[in-house]
Amino acid sequence: MVEMTDMYDKFAYAYRLFSKIEAGAIEGALSFLDLGDSKTFLDIGCGPGLALRLAGHRIKGPSFIIGLDRSRQMIDISREKHHSFKIHLIQGDALKLPLASDSFDSVFLSFTLELFEKKEQSMLLEEVARVLKEDGKLAVVSLNSLPPSLPKRIYEMLRMIFPDVLNCRPIDLIEVLRDGGFETLNSRDDMLWGLPVTYASAKTS
Ligand SMILES: C[S@@+](CC[C@H](N)C(=O)[O-])C[C@H]1O[C@@H](n2cnc3c(N)ncnc32)[C@H](O)[C@@H]1O
What we know:
CATH architecture: 3-Layer(aba) Sandwich
Shape: globular
Distance between the termini: 37 Å
Bound molecules: S-adenosylmethionine
Structural class: alpha/beta
Oligomer: single chain
Radius of gyration: 16 Å
Mean pLDDT: 88
Strand order of the largest sheet: 3-2-1-4-5-7-6
Helix content: 25-40%
Number of helices: 7
Number of strands: 7
Strand content: 25-35%
Order of helices and strands: HHEHEHEEHEHHEE
CATH topology: Rossmann fold
Number of domains: 1
CATH superfamily: Vaccinia Virus protein VP39
């Protein structure tokens, strides 16, 4: 089995092109955060950094925006693209965030929570809860396991054939958030190129 980070290192440049089609879904989830007032924003598994740029446009005034990813290549691509003094990039593990507790107004995850096994999803959400400020908010966009559709069936079939490449496993986001100790504040189901996605914002319960 290909180590997940090796795979993202290998395909980082191709993923950069692919990630552009996610812009609508990422905007949808960002709209659930009160980013105008946010001073500290963390994108976990930031990939090539699209959400960092979109969040940067929404956040007004002085702010501290951090993108964290385990893949060196993803961090390098993000760095090439984002020269803004507001954006800081860190190579690190989502399950062991190298960040202080109680320090972020907003935490963001796009197409990353569903990469992890069930037990690790709870570990990741525990880390999110630790770094969020008491009144901070989490927003997530993920592939949704609920509504059946033809593109979803095709995706699941391809995933069985290429599990190392198509490694986002659709999840019931609201249930994962609840199991991880988060209360959903807002949520919306949508489609991304025929695949069902859910956006949600949540706070620790
Ligand atoms: C499907 S991509 C999503 C990238 C980006 N959030 C987006 O929506 O375009 C998942 C990202 O999570 C990163 N990742 C995987 N495991 C990780 C871990 N344990 N810690 C931090 N990042 C991780 C990968 O390197 C990859 O960049």
